[in-house]
Amino acid sequence: MDFSLNNRWQVLQCDSRLPRERQSPDPLEFIAGTPNGRLIVDLVPELKLIIGDQPPVPELPPQEAQGRFQLVFRRFINVFAQPEHPLALFLDDLQWLDAATLDLLEVLLTQPDVHHLMLIGADSVHPTRQQSLPRPVLVKCPTRGSA
Questions:
Q1: pTM value?
Q2: What phi and psi, each to the nearest 5 degrees, are found at residue 117?
Q3: How far is CA 94 from the centre of its chain?
Q4: How far does Cα 138 stand from its chain's mean position?
Q5: Which residues, in sequence order, are CB contacts of 3 under 8 Å at separation 6+?
Q6: Which residues pair with 88 in a beta bridge?
Q7: Contact present, 39 and 60 (Cβ < 8 Å)
Q8: For residue 98, what are the CA distances in angstroms to 102, 108, 112?
Q9: How far apart are CA 44 and CA 47, in angstroms?
Q10: Between the CA of residue 63 and those of 49, 58, 68, 145, what are the distances in Å?
Q11: pLDDT digits (tens, 9 = 90+) for 21-74
């Protein structure tokens, strides 16, 4: 990961244009010091420098653990995807996505609580495959107009 996360963090902490309610002392307070924080630190290790060590994640059955991760990840994305600072994520090599990542992308694209996020994807077509990207996710994603 490059320093863009750190730069984005500084914008959230310092930008005087953000509404007062968004200028909380810690925009990541919903995860700092919680098991949810460990989920995100495991995903983005550089966050440990910002929010410190996090308690272990309690064990859950697989389905519940996946739901917890998806919820925490959506909330994490929403910290950065704001009307004043929309977030664009470029995902390369989509042909290598596993089922869990496809599920996460579907959640990001279909849940009504995720706004101001643009996902851009690229994949490559291998000569032995008929299609490159698993199309069911694209079919399931509703088209949302601009707000």
A1: 0.69
A2: -125, 130
A3: 16
A4: 18
A5: none
A6: 118
A7: no
A8: 6, 16, 24
A9: 6
A10: 30, 14, 9, 31
A11: 444 446 677 777 777 889 999 988 998 888 888 889 999 999 999 999 999 999
Amino acid at 79: V
* Residues found in the chain: 147
Q: Give CA–CA dist 56/36, Å, rounded.
A: 9
Structure tokens at 56: 């272990």
Q: Which two tokens stand for residue 67?
A: 């739901």
User: Which H, E and C letters describe the chain, residue by residue?
Assistant: CCCHHHHHHHHHHHCCCCCHHHCCCCCCCCCCCCHHHHHHHHHCHHHHHHHCCCCCCCCCCHHHHHHHHHHHHHHHHHHHCECCECEEEEECCHHHCCHHHHHHHHHHHHCCCCCCEEEEECCCCCCCCCCCCCHHHHHHCCCCCCC
Token readout for 38 is 């460990």
